[in-house]
Amino acid sequence: MSDTNRFDIESLGASEYRSPLQLSTVKGDRIFNFVSESDRLVFDLSIDHYNQCLTDGVAPVYMEKAGPRQDIFFDGKNTTAAIVTCGGLCPGINNVIRGLVMALHYFYGVKKIVGIPYGYEGLNPQKGHDLVELTPDKVKDIHQFGGTFLGSSRGGQDVSVMVDTLENNKVDMLFAIGGDGTLKGVNAIGEEISKRKAKISVVGIPKTIDNDIDLIDESFGFETAFDVASPILRDAHNEATGAYNGISIIKLMGRDSGFIAASAALSMPVVNFVLIPEMDFALDGEDGFLKALEKRLHQKKHAVIVVAEGAGQQLFKERKIVKDASGNVQHEDIGVFLKEKISEYFKGKSPVTIKYIDPSYIVRCAPANSSDSVYCSRLAYHAVHGAMAGKTKFVASRVNNRYVYIPIDEVTKKRKKIDVEGEFWFSVLQSTGQPFFLG
């Protein structure tokens, strides 16, 4: 059997310190045990994969179980940790910051914790952002608010300069909270650290409101996003039913993946059409969206349409590719476009009343709900345990409903998308009643 495994985590070296955590070392005790370095969890749980491994005589692909180790790499009283938040806002960022500070301070007695203001800009001295000392007292209430206590920004900085800043401030571990671009950035920082043979752990905590980080069960903040969006859909339905041939169009976030739009529609089943980036749809023709909308109005006299921000980009014929500071393609406004096209289509045919709603920035700035709050705290704790054990260039995440460590470069290879031939999307089609050709 091969000893190599795609999910192996890099280590800074041998662990020479005993953990200050008072946990059991005896299996079967009623006290939680330390996690052994040999504890592994199988990635693919299907019986087909199991049988294939038996046939081929190979070990299944596995992941490292997250959690506290008995032997750790860093001595807390001589350790400095840093936290940075990057990219767009998302519910739960402050919960993660709070969880990291509390775990570092109370679990491991970490000497100093600093916040890096305004994303990776804070690691570039030329930007003039001073590091912020973080204490339990400073962060104890920030979980009640949306946004980020540390501020954020998009775009990268010179990797060599950022590592210089970490070394100059004697930082031993860096926790980066962000999405695809942020994770690639912190991985690049980790590569530069490795070249210098420095002993600095870099850890990613996957944050994207779109839920498009590959491999992991779910990104934090995602559940809050469609939870906040659900009553907006309810009210949009009330608007639509309040007028003859009333149409409500709600644009939700989802640059490349339509998880928020689809999940919000399932949680508030008053939606008649969900349009997402994963599906192509035509506006015109017998099988086009406008014809389907016309049939819906003829039958029910109202319609609710939820569209993800990245949907229908193929409909913009003279589209210019423009990217933001994070390298993401800036999409044309599909919501306004649909409103105009629907208005043109029904002009002279029948009167329609169209209401267009874009609550994106309200949704992403909301504080985390109870479910996300729990998730954020647990992600933060597991991130700290991994860093203190000297692991580096990994994300703390949940896979198959278990907490694990995964190499950053594995989760950034591609974006997670809705499988339009899968059961989840089929549930959306059943809920909305929209034609299958629109899926």
What does this structure look like?
With 439 residues, the chain is α/β, with parallel strands linked by helices. Helix content is 33%, strand content 17%. The protein is built from 13 helices and 17 strands. A 9-stranded mixed sheet has the order 3-4-17-16-10-9-6-7-8, with helices on both faces. A 4-stranded parallel sheet has the order 12-13-11-14, with helices on both faces. It has a two-stranded antiparallel ribbon with strand order 1-15. Helix 2 (93-107) links the parallel strand 6 and strand 7. The radius of gyration is 24 Å and the shape is elongated. Its cofactor is Mg(2+). Pathway: Carbohydrate degradation; glycolysis; D-glyceraldehyde 3-phosphate and glycerone phosphate from D-glucose: step 3/4. Residues 81-385 form the Phosphofructokinase domain.
Helix/strand order, N-terminal first: EEEHEEEHEEHHEHEHEHEHEHEHHEEEHH
Count helical runs.
Answer: 13
> Could you report the average pLDDT, rounded to the nearest whole number?
94
Class from helix and strand fractions: alpha/beta
Strand order of the largest sheet: 3-4-17-16-10-9-6-7-8
As a percent range, the share of strand residues is: 15-25%
Q: Report the span from N to C terminus.
A: 43 Å
Shape: elongated
Low-confidence stretches: none
Family: Belongs to the phosphofructokinase type A (PFKA) family. PPi-dependent PFK group II subfamily. Atypical ATP-dependent clade 'X' sub-subfamily.
Domain Phosphofructokinase: 81-385
Protein name: ATP-dependent 6-phosphofructokinase
Pathway: Carbohydrate degradation; glycolysis; D-glyceraldehyde 3-phosphate and glycerone phosphate from D-glucose: step 3/4
